[in-house]
Amino acid sequence: MAFTEEQKKYYKKNFNALADTLILKQDLAKLSKSKKFKIIQGQDPLDVNLINTYTRKKIYSDPLMELNSLLATYNEKYALYPILYFYGLGNGVLYKALCQNPKLQHIIIFESDIELIFTSLHLIDLSSEIKDRKINIISPKNNRQQILSIFYNQPFLNFVRVYFLELHSDYYESEHDEIIKLNKDIYHTIKEAVCAHGNDPKDALQGIEQFVYNLPKMLTHPNAKELVNTRKELGKNAIIVSTGPSLTKQLPLLKEYANKATIFCADSSYPILAKAGIKPDYVMMLERTHVTAEFFNHDFGDFDKDIIFITTALVHPKAIEYLEKYNRTYILIEKFLGFESYMEFHSFGYLMMVSSVAHMAYELAMALRCENIIFIGQDLAYAKDGCSHPKDYQNSSTYETNMYEHITTKAYGGEGEVETHFIWNMFRTILEKHILGTPKTTKIYNCTEGGARIEGTIEKPFKEICENLLNVDLNKPFPSLKFPNQNKQNERMLKAYYKIQKSIKNCDKLELFVLEKQQNILKKINQEEFKNLSYENKELAGSVIEDIDVLKSEIEKIHTIYGDLNEILQPLYHQFELNLAKIYVLNPLTEEDWVNKTLFWIKEHLDWIIYVLIHLKAQKEALQNNVSPLENELLQRNFGNLLNKIKRN
């Protein structure tokens, strides 16, 4: 169809407002006209309809009536929503009108028909809203990664619990399957985003407890820096062995080529490799649970000689107990978390984006300057028979088969889909981010030959890669690592003890501050006037909310400044903000609504303040209860007087 000069002007402005990096802009640039849609203009400038010339279906049955109906609904129910999500662009008029609401920060519009987008951008000037990112048009068919990434950012993350997807008009009901799939993907991404930002202060507390308990072991053993300095560039090829159901078929080939590559294996793969007689160079452990520690509860005798067991510093103490029981060489590496960073052993090195042992192995392989990184057993999906792990897996091949809800993702090879769950899916997306930042000189091969596709990897049969790349025997065993001398051990342990005592005092200091502010707020709330709160005495409610906001701001500043408190308070704060969003978006239409929302808002904050106090007390007790191994080690080294002095100051 032909466009008027004014319509062409609208389109040019809208097109130029789109970010150059958007796939949408690149797709639109390929179009010069639309054969699929015809514009039907009524007498009113807003009475604009579009008809699909292929199906003869109109976008609206009555454009003005549907526009006014939706605006009335949104102005009443959703006036305080900072983000709205729609499936369907339509004629764009609704979104121009909604943008007049100053409370609305973003509208996310999913539209899969590129010709419809092309036509609609000729109808109305949305350029300023597009440029300011108030209106965001996304094509879900070819840009799913952009869709999913937004939920990891603010303000989208804080308002995920009030997310809903609105159908623009009945025209889009024909895309039912795509809408359902998109909605499912978004819900699973929301779960991943919430999980990635910290969703359980109990997990954080367990990590802090075990890290403090394990400190003497970490500080008296070699560290990551020593490992990298001693062993970097000793081999070009790394094989990362995970415990997906496909691992079994790769074991004979792995055994044949074991001496021609550096082998990193997951803790759960270690017993399987040991039984197959395949010696890894490194065995990795990440998780803090007792269940994971049991992968080390084996006596494989001389098989363990020359293997380095690498765990995070917050693993369950049982894991270290088993390592020492069977005389294994091990090192502990810190994750880049709040409390571990607060301890300031920066020169040891940190694990950064690690949510699985595969991520951990990948980071170490990169640090050791491996040029080819080869994944096997990295299914991140269920096998066709429903198995989650190999048949020789210690906890049974169906260990996770019914543990989580099954979702689908693209299969290895790019054709079809496989079943996975949201945690594996999160591991996959994090791994893809790792790979995206990998230098071009490093090649990443996925030789799993099954499971989920990992974007950015080169998919090749394991046999082909072994034959083409693994042609030189490495000089194994690799050089041994040096332990720190006695003076260095003493220095580091004393520093750790000082930092822990300081953190205990920080807990006390913040607890007293919060208690004082809490009491001031409760005095106002306990007034008779507040007990009978009405719209007429809203100044008193405003005064209470102002006091709460001041306290909230101060707590946020303090736990940001005191890195030792951030790790436990951040997930608590994050979950609080997610719940608070559900109250924030309530639009009070009557004075009674206002009172109820205000009381609800204040109660939610008071509950949060109580949880802050509980968690500060819990962290203090965790530090006091788990510092004893470090304290006992220092007492044995005759530092009793110095420890007493540190406690007093």
Would you give an account of this structure?
- InterPro entries: MptE-like (IPR002826).
- The chain is of the alpha/beta class and 649 residues long.
- It has 2 domains: 5-196, no CATH class; 202-469, no CATH class.
- It is 49% helix and 11% strand.
- The strands form 4 sheets. The protein has a 9-stranded parallel β-sheet, with helices on both faces. A 4-stranded parallel β-sheet has the order 5-4-3-6.
- Strand 8 (262-266), helix 12 (270-276) and strand 9 form a beta-alpha-beta unit.
- The protein is flat, with a radius of gyration of 29 Å.
- The N and C termini lie far apart (81 Å).
- The model has no long low-confidence stretch (mean pLDDT 94).
Query: Which structural class fits the helix and strand makeup?
Result: alpha/beta
Radius of gyration: 29 Å
DSSP summary: helix tally? 25
* Termini Cα gap: 81 Å
How much helical structure, as a percent, in the residues?
A: 40-55%
Strand order of the main beta sheet, please?
12-11-10-9-8-7-13-16-17
Question: Which word captures the global form?
Answer: flat
Number of strands: 17
* Strand percentage: 5-15%
Q: For the residues shown, what is the average pLDDT?
A: 94
Low-confidence stretches: none
Q: What can be said about the biggest beta sheet? A: 9 strands, parallel
Number of domains: 2
Protein name: Motility associated factor glycosyltransferase family protein
InterPro entries: MptE-like (IPR002826)
Domain 6-hydroxymethylpterin diphosphokinase MptE-like: 210-384
